[in-house]
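Exam revision sheet. Question 4 asks you to relate a sequence to its structure. Input first:
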Amino acid sequence: MVSFELGNYEEAVSQLSEAMDAPVLLKAKEVPEGWFYLGKSKSILISNAMSLQNQEQLVRYKGYDLEAYECFNKAIKAGAKDQITQSSIQEIQDLSYVIFNSGNTEYLLGNLDDAITYYNAAESIAESHGMRGEYQIYSLRGQTYLSKGDSTLACNDFAKATERYLASSPEIPDANIGYAYYSMAIIERYNNNDLDRALELAQVGNELMQSEVERLKGLLNNGSSDQSMLASQGAQFGSVMDALNRFELDIYSASPQKYDEAVAKFKKALIENPGDANMWLVYGNLIEYNDIEGSYEAYRNAIVIDPNNSVAHFNAGANRVNKGTSYARKANDEIDFQKAQEWQDKMNEEFKKALPHMEKAHELEPNNIYVLDALIQVTLQLEMMDDYNLYKEKQQLLKGY
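Answer key, structure tokens:
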């Protein structure tokens, strides 16, 4: 304990570890103190190593966070007086983030069993001491189980993550909870072969994402939080919702009966909510391969409602490119030169319709490589060589070659 007070934490760990190997030789009051200061010494060493990102120390002190947690628990169980008990509880709560972060590190390094050990400890702290944010622990442990191939335990954790998130939503909406729904939907479809349940999870996840986006917009409008962080979350929400939408559409395409039900559902919903740009966008995606003109009209409706919707502009442009490409195939198959030219002209008409949509999408998302790829294709076909060269140069800069 003297070494600890002098800041010699390594020496304190060595001496206290030796002492706590034989706690029966200590006085009763010294046992909880010994465990507490051993845990505190280890906690300081690993926390400092993490703060400094000292790789040598991180290797040397690996596991100290878990060992410190165990020491504080032993201090409490040893019948510590109130001051040591309260201090141990506080230290455990302070360790929760360190332990959770260690779990994330082990997961990223591919040490899945170690990651689960850390997440288990983080869960125990959250459940025992009422820590907020436990939904994140369940969500990431679920991803770890999924990486290990255990879909049952993964699904259980994802379900707990969504349950805890709904019961106590964080102050700032977290788009990552959408991936829990997405992962459960994937498991239900591909592991359990339950399309109905998979579809239900995708839809529930999407509904939550939409409500959280509205909450996020409220925070952005009142300026009460970090605006750059909120804007970053907004981009994440778009990505998650796109994944859920595409998965839902994939299920519809896998089942003709569900496709017909979905079309009927969207038509009814659009009559009731004609001003919902996102619904028009999803509907356009749904019918893209069966009704290309209806799909284009749906994207245009979304654009009328939300002129700065980059996805709607991109989809509308891609729709016309696909239409033009179908005419190109007919031109290539035609042996009559005049008829082939007619098909070629039709193709160019569609590419001209695509161009303003792609230009607007590029204006809204100048670093979107997929938009640039499409603009290169369109301008080359329309022989707009100055524009082609400009977009080609931007593409090369973004790709780095």
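Marking note for examiners. The domain at 1-129 is CATH 1.25.40 (Serine Threonine Protein Phosphatase 5, Tetratricopeptide repeat).
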